[in-house]
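User: What would this chain look like folded?
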Amino acid sequence: MLKIEAFSPREREMLVTLSGRVERKHLPELEHLIGQSAGEDARITFDFRKVGLVDREAVDFFVNGPGTRATLRGCPLYLRTWLRLAGRPTD
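Assistant: Here's the prediction, encoded as structure tokens.
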């Protein structure tokens, strides 16, 4: 299960807090949020501090797919390692 909370703390910024497991079935909703932020000319940040598991397809989404347009923060150590090995920076 994944809980997705999106809000705009400042103008032209969208913060998306994720809680639970990020799996392939959630990627269309995350992609929609990325598109929405682009349409509003807003920077989007995904906060992973409350995430327990990110599956391989979701990692690929953030390394090679639409998720490359987002800033990532609060990533668990295993996710930071996978992202770093793929050449993807995190906060």
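The mean pLDDT is 92. If you want, I can go into more detail on any region.
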